[in-house]
Every structure is written in C-alpha cells, then in structure tokens.
Amino acid sequence: MGKTIIEKILQAHTKDEVKPDRLIEADIDLAFANDITAPLAIEDFKLMGAKKVFDPEKVALIPDHFTPNKDIKSAEQAKLVKEFAKEYGIKHYFEVGRGGIEHVLLHEEGLTLPGDVIIGADSHSCTYGALGCFATGVGSTDLAAAWALGKLWFKVPRTMKFIYHGKLKRWVGGKDIILFTIGQIGVDGALYRAMEFSGDVIRELPMDDRFTICNMVIEAGGKCGVIEPDEKTIEYLNGRAKRNYRIFKSDPDAEYEKIYEWDLSELEPQVAMPHSPANVKGVSQLRGVKVDQVVIGSCTNGRLRDLAIAAEILKGKKVHPDVRVIIFPGTQRVYKEALKLGYIETFIESGAAVSTPTCGPCLGGHMGVLAKGETCISTTNRNFIGRMGHKDSYVYLASPAVAAASAIAGEIASPEEVMKG
Amino acid sequence: MIKGKAWKFGNDIDTDVIIPAIYLNTTDPEELGKHCFEPIFPNFKERVSKGDIIVAGKNFGCGSSRQHAPIAIKACGISCIVASSFARIFFRNAINIGLPILESEEASEKIENGDEVEIDLEKGIIKDLTKNLEFKAEPLPESVLEILASGGLVNYVRRKLGGE
Ligand code: SF4
Fold first, then answer.
1. Interface test with B, best of A21, A36, A69, A77 (most B CBs within 10 A)
2. pTM
3. Are residues A86 and A207 in the same domain?
4. B2-160 adopts what CATH topology?
5. Which residues of chain A lie closer than 8 angstroms to B87, CB-CB?
6. What total of structural domains would you count in chain A?
7. Contact assignment for B62 to A188 by CB distance below 8 Å
8. Residue A400: which CATH number?
9. Among A48, A120, A122, beta carbon nearest to B157
10. pLDDT-derived band of residue B163, with 50, 70 and 90 as boundaries?
C-alpha cells in the first residue's frame, strides 16, 4: 500500500513507523510564535527548566497580532518576546517595520520549505502546506516543549483528498475554492484530518492562491493542508529558500480516507455569511446586503496578488460614501511592491485607508474594530460571533475581488457587475 | 473522582466565544476567567461553582490556537469538559494545562443542563446522577495519559530534560 505525501514527510522525521492514527515523535524544522502566543510559551519554557532552545536557527518570533502595540499590556507582551529573542539568540525575530503577518512573512522569507515539519503557536500555521510540507498549529505549551526538545508528539492524521477539475471563471480564485469546500463539508468536515488539494485547477493556481487555500483548512477542522510541489512551487522558492529542501509526492496507490471530486467550471465567487465560515452562498444570492466596512488583507488574502486584484477593481473608481475600507498588506515586502506597482496610490485615490501590516482588524484587535450592528465584508478567515468587534456585528468572508466590488457598490456585489457598470 | 453540575453548550463553540481576542493582552488566569464565554454567557464565572462540568456538542474549542481558552475555562472552576468531539488544538491545549476532557457522543446528548454528573477519569466513566445513567467515554491515547500522569506537559518535559 502506498503512502500519502503527509505520511512520507512525517516518516522522514521520525524513527517510529508512520501509519494513520499512530502516535509518533517527529523532529521539528521550524517552531514559531507571535506576540500573544509566545509569552505563554516563554513562561512554560522557563518552567520546564530549559536552558536553551534546541536550535536558534529553527525558531521564529513574529510580533504581529497587537502590533504596532495597541495598548500598554500589548506593549509589555511584545517587549517580553523581544527580550527572549535577544537572550536566546533567536535570529528570526521580525520587529515591526521589518516583518509583517507571520503566515505571509515566513514563506516569503524562505523559512518554510517543502518536506518540512513545521509547528506554530497559531492555528493558521497550516498555511505552509501549500509548499508541500507538514505544517500545523499547536498551543503554547506544545511549542515550548518543541523549543526545549526539538521534537513533538503527533497523531498521524488520515488524509482526505480534494480534486478540483475544470477551468475557473474570471474573478474566481483560491478563496472561493476553499470557501466552497468548507461550505460543502462543514466546519468539522475534516476534523483531525490532512486535506490534500489536487487536480487541474490547483495546478493552474498561482502560489498566492494556494496559500489562501491551505490557510483555511483549520476552518474545516483540518490538522494540515497540503499541495504537492510542482514547477510553480520551485520557481517560487528560487532565490528564496534558506535551506535545502526535499520534495515528496503521494504514491498513486496511497490510501485516502475519503476523496471528494468537483468540477468548478461554473463556480461563482463565494461568500461565507455570519457567523460561520461554512455558511457559504454564491455572491449572486447575497446582492443587496449593505456593508459598513470592507477589510482587505490578513494571512488569508494579504499577498501581492490579492492586492493586485483589489487594485484592478478599485482603479479609477470611488469607494461608496457610506463605506470605510481598510487595506492592510501582509508584509513590508508586499507593501513595498504594492507601492511600486501603483496599487497603494489606487487605493488611496479610491478613498480607502491603507494600514501597516498587522493582524489588527482580523481578530477585532485594533485598527478596524466593528461597532454594534455594523456589517463588514472581509477577506479574512473567520466570522465567528464578535470576531471583529461587538458581539452584535456581522462579518461576511469573501475574496479580495468581491470585497473590492462591494466597497464600490456599498453592498455585497460581484466583481463582474461592478466592472461592467 | 470529579463531581459537579452540568452546564450545557451546543455545537462548534469557538475560541472567540470562549475568550474574545480583546482580552488576549494578558496571560493571567483570573483575568481571563472573568471574561470566559462573555459573548454568549456573560458572568459565567460568577454563576458556576467550583467543580462544575461543561457538557457540549461537537467540535468544542474550534478556531484559534489560543491556549487562553482552556485556561479561562479552568480559571472559572470547571473541572472537566465532556463533548461529542473537540477541535484538535483545543484538545491538546486542555491536556497540556491539566484540564481533563472526555469525548462521548451519548453523554453529550443525554445529559441535560443542571444534572449532577460524576466522572471517573481513569476509567473514562461518566455518570448522570440525576437521571441515573452511565456512559463510557473514548479512552485517551497513551501519550496523553503519560503527559497527564506527569501532571501536564511542562512537568513531562522538565523530567525529560532532567533525565537526559
Ligand atoms: S491575520 Fe488573522 S487569522 Fe491570520 S494570523 Fe493574524 S489574526 Fe490570525
């Protein structure tokens, strides 16, 4: 019986025999945390009596959630992280102004590579699976244990395969594919499972869209998402990869718990309604829903291609008078590129605010918190009750294309319509 | 032996509901406990008694990896969570900080709000004393029992580091 890509990667990192549902101890290639999960990990790391991290090259710290510090308590947490990085010789510490949102930054920096076993104390650490590695989110104590020992226990996940056929329509991309999928299988449809994405549609997708897909596997309960590396992956890594890497692929006779297969040729842009990422409808069914705020960015859709699409739609147009638009590039590098390509000017001309890279509004932290009764359409990944502010606020999740179109229309709108008008 | 009153919750209780992100600027359990379940169940901490038990539906603790969520629940005095299933990271976090959790679909369905519940963790037996019912929970995996036996992951690693 053949093995899946995830089983092969895990096998390359452990002496134990890898089989679904088995418990194994695997070596870690990268273990990282942010400004809200690192303080707890640091506390535990010290309680464990650890004197040093297992390998300072394999640890990263990214202050991104409440930075630039939103209040005194946040500033103190960020300070603690910075001091820890100094004290333990952590090279991959990314200060505000030299970093950005962790899950856009780490792959951009070439620190997450095919064949790796990666853990992050953040649930969206599953993003990196788009490069063909095993990447998953853990809690702070797990992370501290990995910092101390360089290893962590895992239950080998069973794999579900998702095959997408056909040719995507204009304005349909990675976000629509993953929203559609979550809508089909539900928020626990892949609980504890590895989600392997494949098919012609995936092969055609640029890397930025692939990251968007793997970013949201956690919203289906998945442990990790994965896409087999191909020429697009290798091209992406050229000049970027900081270490050597290994490419694994699933065997043709690998065992899958379940295989889903869809033709996406007729798929229209998808939108998840409040208060669940699985509450998904086609954009045409939601026309007329008024919005107060539009957010474009985050670890789901804060990459250059996302901003390019938003700029294409906003170019020469004005944001609706009743709407405020906040656009936050994922990293400083994305920001700079967007500036060079004229996107930032387009955004400002259209009447949108452009923020420094931060998680800020995505988790209702700062820089775009919603008031009672307000509705927001956002390119982020969660629309739980109170996620972006008041418990009586409403969040719709969509692609940058739909978000930008809605910004102009003042209500949920399809990009096609707005571009025609 | 754990004994307490059941507090029932539905399916897909997420970490933003357990502890909203605005309170993540602290790691103090007391402070986190005060805001536990605030969006759906304000003043939860004041309403529960020490030792009470949460009984929930499927996918409890979905969403963020924030360990603050089980910490907040534990700080309210909750002694155990029974659910038909847990989100993966929440499951690990709860074990790692020493908050016992058990999976039982039947117990999750049959136990009602306010029932007196008794739990034998080692045997994985859940009893509804009000209704005189008994349920068997999924046994915990071996590695998890090892961590629990050490008194949580921190102690487990401390021992390993000391011994190696
Ligand atoms: S952008 Fe949002 S989802 Fe992504 S890491 Fe930040 S808070 Fe989490």
1. A36
2. 0.91
3. yes
4. Aconitase; domain 4 (3.20.19)
5. 188, 191, 221
6. 2
7. yes
8. 3.30.499.10
9. A48
10. low
